[in-house]
Write a structure and sequence with these properties.
heterodimer, A: alpha/beta, eight-stranded mixed β-sheet, four-stranded antiparallel β-sheet, 12 strands, globular, B: alpha/beta, 13 strands, 23% strand, nucleotide-binding (chain A), ATP binding (chain A), transport (chain A), Oligopep_ABC_C (chain A)
């Protein structure tokens, strides 16, 4: 199904700062510092970035698990964060799949109870029998045998557990599923199964996905559009083929260049080697956040923060974006 | 070659006992690494690759682990004939280990200078002052800025990439014959991973050290290794020179893995997923361990385990169908 143009989910000016407790002397962590994005119905928006870039915090705000300090998330034009918390019907329409299937599934609940919990919470099944049937349907949908619904999470392999997490997210017939590193805890021979499952579900159910991962190739594979995050901000955003094929932001170039490629023949290629580590989100550098590691940086980059501006078909936040 | 290989392991077997059950984690592994060479041991979790590394280092002396080996030689010296004391002296000087998680591998209450210096004091008998000077040299070698100022810092004061550099510095400090790097970059970000891999490769070239790189990442193995050995369910199922192995895999598992990872340059619509999951080490199927997930599996595969046989110059595969695979690739 081709993505339609109207957004289901829109985030504008999201900021989230975690203030430390008594023991933290470092100060506040600026996890997300001004992110705008739109998710269209039926599309997959991939978010890539290194650890500490705020991609998980962004995910949690997009499902309403975390309240932004500034900015707003809207679902089909309706604000998420009202005085009474996130409205229940919005919660039902926006679901989440977590990274580690073992810690995100209650070990003392059976698979039936885990998948039925959202049905119960949102009163989606009139009686126990209907609920059981629906759980069976959901398990079949994700490729698990309904006979096993009486079992516990530890009796399943990593890939199967992730399927249980996906079945639980699908239970409420959501329009949006936000997936935070859904395949990175899985063995490489199993990753492809889950990646294919997401693609299949999207084709069949038309659900929109936000797919957050650090693996560039996986994100490219599943996404229609891709956003690249660096230290709490989007460095680049656009159609996957554009962002990967003609990256405009130096960070995207470096990231793509640094990714190990399973082709020994390409070993001698020239690569962009960034110096150092990403700076700490406690004290992000002034101006462009990437200027401390950027080979294109000038004095202006250390002073003026570049805005996310259109570069051809996509957007990049760089004064010297390759056009 | 007149020089003996740096590492020669024949028929390594490791069996753990847990809850009265025997769990064979490594079931007959052969490894040979020449001087200055990098061998990547590629496998998924539970394939026995880390256990192999620990067994080679002699770090599995625990009551519930049974380690057996037909031959174990390091640079021509017989590891099996050595006393525990002699092996201990080799660890850290002749063969060293770089762990995955640098934060838990370093002692949090000792300064970096103390921990690197300890190597020189214990193994080389240097004085504190000399050891400190050498430690600063090592830190600069691995690219830690202002090494003379940071030598008294503690592990928590360094970033993840810097800590991994410190581990690499400790591993190469005494110019060992062999470095075993167990997922050295798995905990790191892509841009930092590239730096560390480059560093290990540079030190290998400059110091002529042999490297055993344990990884689950096909990309990482392709970037730095000379030879690759693919492990599945406690055994090596295929080994060979890196370019050959990636271009014309001789084992269906290798072939399937390569088809299951997305290609950055040409996104296909659907990945060729491998059905099922890796077997539990406690109950590996009879015959070929990969047979239940293999699309080429025949009746023979479920009953008779294929031996690791030479299928070309320097190439080995344990599969009844290797020949038809390679013929098919050529045709």
């Amino acid at each position: 199904m081709a993505p339609s143009p109207d957004p289901v989910l829109r985030a504008s000016g999201l900021h989230k700062t975690y203030r430390g407790g008594m023991l933290s002397r470092g100060g506040a962590v600026r996890a997300v510092a001004g992110v705008d994005l739109e998710l269209r119905a039926g599309e997959t928006l991939g978010i890539v970035g290194e650890s500490g870039c705020g991609k998980s915090t962004l995910a949690r705000m997009l499902v309403g698990l975390e309240r932004p300090d500034q900015g707003e998330v809207t679902f089909r034009g309706r604000p998420f964060f009202t005085r009474g918390g996130v409205p229940r019907d919005i919660r039902r329409r926006v679901q989440m799949v977590f990274q580690d299937p073992l810690t995100s599934l209650n070990p003392r609940m059976t698979v039936h109870d885990i998948v039925a919990e959202p049905l119960r919470v949102h009163r989606l099944s009139p009686n126990a029998r209907a609920m059981r049937e629906r759980v069976g349907e959901l398990l079949t949908l994700v490729g698990l045998s309904p006979d096993r619904m009486g079992r516990f999470p530890y009796e399943f392999s990593g890939g199967q557990r992730q399927r249980i997490g996906i079945a639980r997210a699908l239970a409420t017939e959501p329009d949006v599923i936000v997936c935070d590193e859904p395949v990175s805890a899985l063995d490489m021979s199993v990753q492809a199964q889950v990646v294919n499952l997401f693609a299949e579900l999207q084709r069949e159910l038309g659900v929109a996905l936000v797919f957050i991962a650090h693996d560039l190739a996986v994100v490219r594979h599943v996404s229609h559009r891709v956003g690249v995050m660096y230290l709490g901000r989007l460095a680049e955003l656009g159609p996957a083929a554009e962002v990967y094929g003609a990256p405009a932001h130096p960070y995207t170039m470096a990231l793509l260049s640094a990714a190990p490629v399973p082709k020994p023949g390409l070993r001698g290629r020239s690569r962009i080697m960034l110096a150092g580590d990403p700076p700490s989100p406690v004290a992000p550098p002034p101006g462009c956040r990437f200027h401390t590691r950027c080979w294109k940086a000038t004095d202006r980059c250390g002073e003026v923060e570049p805005a996310l501006e259109a570069v051809g078909e996509h957007f990049a936040a760089c004064h010297y974006a390759t056009r | 070659m007149s020089e003996p290989p740096v590492l020669e392991i024949r028929d390594l077997r490791v069996t753990f006992t847990a809850h009265g059950r025997e769990i064979p984690a490594v079931r007959g592994v052969d490894l040979t690494i020449e001087r200055g060479q990098t061998l990547a041991l590629l496998g998924e979790s539970g394939s026995g690759k880390s256990v192999t590394a620990k067994a080679v280092m002699g770090l599995l002396d625990q009551p519930n682990a049974d380690v057996r080996c037909a031959t174990a030689r390091l640079g021509g010296r017989d590891l099996l004939a050595m006393s525990e004391e002699e092996r201990r002296a080799l660890r850290g000087s002749e063969m060293t280990l770089v762990f995955q998680d640098a934060l838990s591998a370093l002692n949090p209450v000792l300064s970096i200078g103390h921990q690197i210096g300890e190597l020189y004091r214990v193994h080389r008998g240097l004085s504190r002052k000399e050891a400190r000077a050498r430690s600063i040299e090592m830190l600069s070698l691995v690219g830690i800025p202002a090494a003379d100022k940071r030598i008294d810092d503690y592990p928590h004061q360094f970033s993840g990439g810097m800590r991994q550099r410190i581990l690499v510095a400790m591993a190469v400090a005494l110019e060992p014959d062999l470095i075993i790097a167990d997922e050295p970059t798995t905990a790191l970000d892509v841009t930092v991973q590239a730096q560390i891999l480059e560093l290990i490769d540079r030190l290998r070239r400059e110091l002529g050290t042999a490297v055993l790189l344990i990884t689950h990442d096909l990309g990482v193995a392709a970037e730095v290794s000379d030879r690759v050995a693919v492990m599945y369910a406690g055994r090596i199922v295929e080994s060979g020179e890196v370019a050959e192995l990636y271009e014309r895999p001789g084992h269906p598992y290798t072939e399937a893995l390569l088809a299951a990872i997305p290609d950055l340059d040409s996104p296909a619509s659907s990945l060729r997923a491998i059905p099922g999951a890796p077997p539990n080490p406690a109950s590996v199927p009879p015959g070929c361990s990969f047979a239940p997930r293999c699309e080429r599996a025949s009746e023979l595969c479920t009953t008779t385990r294929p031996a690791l046989l030479e299928i070309g110059s320097g190439r080995y595969a344990a599969c009844h169908h290797s020949e038809e695979m390679l013929d098919g690739a050529l045709a």
